[in-house]
Amino acid sequence: MKTSRPIPKRALAVGAAVVVGLVAAFAAYSYLHSAQTRAYDNAKLTSAYVVTKPLPQGLAGAQVITGGYVARKQVPAEFRPAGAITNLADIEGTQAVAPIAAGQILVAGMFASPSAAQVTFSRAIPAGDVAVTVSVSQVQGVAGLPQPGDHVDIMVTAASTEQYLLQNVPVLAIGTQTAPQSSTGTSTAAAGTASASGTTTAPANGSGLFTFAVSPLDAERIAFAEQQGLGIYLALEPPGSKPAAVAPANQGNLFTVGPLAATG
Predict the structure, then answer these.
(1) Contact 142/128 with Cβ under 8 angstroms?
(2) 54-70 average pLDDT score
(3) Residue 248 pLDDT > 70, yes or no?
């Protein structure tokens, strides 16, 4: 008659550790699942296709589908933008018109037919204008706050005066960053992109190279001012502003408002 051998204490310890690990893992999963459920408790959920890894410009829709670039997820209904893609078959035969960051919800405007997606930068220039670029510092360029699609005023320092050269000039690009364009080639205002979390991502810049759309004559004036070493300053305009006559500032009228009144 065979007798059973006692289980070694070491084996018992290893088995107990495995059991404890499994219990801890299950507890962690239960907690996270419960936390997510509580977070979405008051939100109506809906499905959307979310980008799971950076999607390069020009990538074919078929590759987006088969390459694991997107996944169907549940998101709060209030965060799903209008035009969200609900059927991946809709992007077959298309390609991405711009790079798409991970976490973004797929919308129809992100894709176009190959012919429509071939939008060159020259199409962003209004008829009759040309594009011209100047280099300014962060101080001269409004601390890098302007974005492609904004409008700025251009001031120059000449003959001991500071004066406006041009007003309400559209910014086509900062560095190589351009304003978003529609499939027709027209430039649109630079805007944030909705993500699955409901936040927006603002386009970043930091380059001191500003490209403007101006008439050929104004392009000559800007180029001449920069070639002459005249200090160029930009002033950011609010939306809908109109050009207005502004007298040059000089030493003679710098303090025309008089001394500041004492307070206290």
Answers:
(1) no
(2) 89
(3) yes
How many angstroms separate the Cα of 81 from the Cα of each of 3, 41, 49, 164, 198? 71, 21, 11, 42, 9
Q: What is the DSSP letter of 198?
A: S
Query: Rounded to whole angstroms, how far apart are CA atoms 122 and 126?
Result: 9
Cα 58 versus chain centre, distance: 18
Question: What average pLDDT does the chain have?
Answer: 75
Answer whether 72's CB lies under 8 Å from 47's CB: yes
Q: Which residues contact 139 (CB under 8 A, 6 or more apart)?
A: none
- 199-204: long-range contacts, CB 8 A cutoff, minimum separation 24: 201/101, 202/147, 203/147, 203/148, 203/177, 204/177
Q: What pLDDT, in 10s, does the model give residues 14-41?
A: 454 444 444 444 444 454 455 555 555 5
Q: Which is more confidently placed, 150 or 2?
A: 150
**Rounded distance between C-alpha atoms, residue 52 and residue 164, angstroms:** 48
d(CA 83, CA 103): 17
- For residues 170 and 30, the model is more confident at 170
Q: Which two tokens stand for residue 62?
A: 């078929």
